[in-house]
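Review form for a predicted model. The reviewer records the input and the model, then writes brief findings.
Reviewer: anonymous (R2)
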Amino acid sequence: MKRKILLGFGLMLLVLMQGCAGTGAKEPESTASGYAGPPTRRVALLTINEPSLYEVHILHDDIPNPGVTLPGRLVGGTMSLVLQGADRTKHNYKLSEAISYWNYKVSEGLTNDIKREMKAIGYEVVVVPVTRNRARFIDKMPNTPVPVDAYIDAYVDFAGYTAIKHGQPYVPTLDVPVKVISTKNGSTTYQATLTYGGPIPVDSPTSTPADPVFNVRNFEELCGTVGCEVSPAVQGMKAGTRAVAKMLARNIK
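Model under review:
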């Protein structure tokens, strides 16, 4: 009887020793950085260019009948195009002056909105200064002050208002080409032109129709500054940057 008790006690000790060895033999795996948790979700947003001019485009300019003869058509048509070009230039400067009056910059609005929308989906955003000689993507990615998972490279290709023809509403329009570049292998993981507004509404992953509340029928009203709490032109641009930032966050989430 005594031998049976001793034998049972020995077997129990053996089982306990094996269990302790099994639980203590394997150490938690760690990453190269010494941190075993989830990877940091951090992106570098390259500074966005401020357009030199806010533009007004009328897609269809009615050209009056320039004449009967072929030379008459050519001369009359050329003069019409010149006059229309001068008119558009005047409108561009007037719109730009009106927006500047309110100390608004679409580049700053877009930067802040992208930071907010990316934060909402769990990304920390680091703004990295770059120099853009013109509106285009950066050729070489810059160094960053902290490690990042990707770069967001975006620029303003068009900012302003468009209309189908004279007498039709001016619609806020913002075109922003954007691409996301992985720092792991330098590959482009996302690229698109994100568009807000335009006279022809298009609703897609990369295009958001303008809210009609921001459409303005009269150009003078669009560029008005007197008696306005907020410029109608600035309101439309703010709506555009919010929409573009939301599309970007939704598409790369």
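Findings: The CA atoms of residues 220 and 241 lie 23 Å apart.
Further findings: Confidence is low (pLDDT under 50) at residues 1-9, 11-39, 62-86.
Recommendation: see findings above.
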